[in-house]
Amino acid sequence: MSLHEDLVVALTGYEGSYGKVLQAVICHEQAQWTQVDWDALAELNIHVDELNEAYRSAITWTDASGLASGSVN
Description:
Shape: globular
Radius of gyration: 14 Å
Low-confidence stretches: none
Largest sheet: none
């Protein structure tokens, strides 16, 4: 599978805009709040409220899909 270079650098080294977002999401998921680069997210016009809402939406979607329990509906 071929991925766009922006995604490759994000996934392999947390570089670029996507990398900054990915790193923030992983830190958020692991409750490593001090590791989130809030300044980098602000430069991308992503604010803490938006990150929190996206996280809650992902949890809701995961619960509804059955992925959290290991059984897919």
